Amino acid sequence: MRKPIFTGSFDPEILEGWGVRPSDWQIGVSVQQKVMTGVSVEVGYFRRWLQNFTVTDNRAVLASDFDPFSIRAPSDPRLPDGGGYTIDGLYNVQPAKATLSDTLTTWARNFGDQTSVYNGVQVSATARIRQGLTFQGGVNTGKTVVNTCAVRSELPETAATDPYCLNDPGFVTRVTGLATYVVPKIDVLFSGTFRSDQGSPLAANYVVTTAEAARTLGRPLSNSAPSVTVNLLKPGEKWGDRVNEVDVKVAKIFRFGRTRSNVGVDIYNLFNANPVLTYNQAFAPGGRWLVPTSVLSARFAKLSASIDF
Questions:
Q1: Cβ contact 159:152 at 8 Å
Q2: The pTM is what?
Q3: Domain coordinates of the chain in residue numbers?
Q4: DSSP letter string over 263-286?
Q5: Residue 232, CB-side half-sphere exposure with 13 Å CA sphere
């Protein structure tokens, strides 16, 4: 009878006890001030940080069992500065240790600090200019910085082909707006919303052959691997299209005693904008890198009705 052989285990310290679950802490403070009749402005600061990270340590290998190597980005006008730059900080386990596995999932803090922190500021304004007319709008900007460098230096296996252990893509800004107006006497509602979102951060996932890696590694990749994939772009180095969208609604309001209903039409993406939402992020010189794979939905209308009682 064969006995199962377990090559993975969990540190008992992460399984039970007080305060062992992953934690998500958030604080926020805001101040609102009336600036004139019917107009107020609010400013807020927000901070969010994560704690109790875990990592999987392959105890069968040490950091010294990984050999560093670097690659040279291909020359391509679509890459920053036309390409040709060097990406280092890549690792490959030595062939003699490549098949060894004895994993332990434990605290990341046993190997060094790991952080994920968001800091952001929000400014918003509300204006009730006259009866039935309201404007709201705001700007939110902030960034999340993730740092795993201390852990990665002790455990290269956690991100051997990801050289960007400090992920700081920069500030992401979102703008929103809302306006509503009810025409007196005829009870017709006009409303509209606007949003402008930062595009998604882009990658250039380049397939590095074992022959190319061997130029600096001094040997082929372990386990007879034919290639590894490396992102040629730093976090936040290149962004996708900004997404701007305007939606509007026109509705007739009907009142029957305490009951209120409205029947109208909603028009989404009024100006038929077509920013790219997702891209082909597989890079190859002269290939189809950043060819759009989806765009914002085209303008469309929807009839709607609601009853409040």
A1: yes
A2: 0.86
A3: 27-308
A4: EEEEEESTT----EEEE--EE-TT
A5: 26
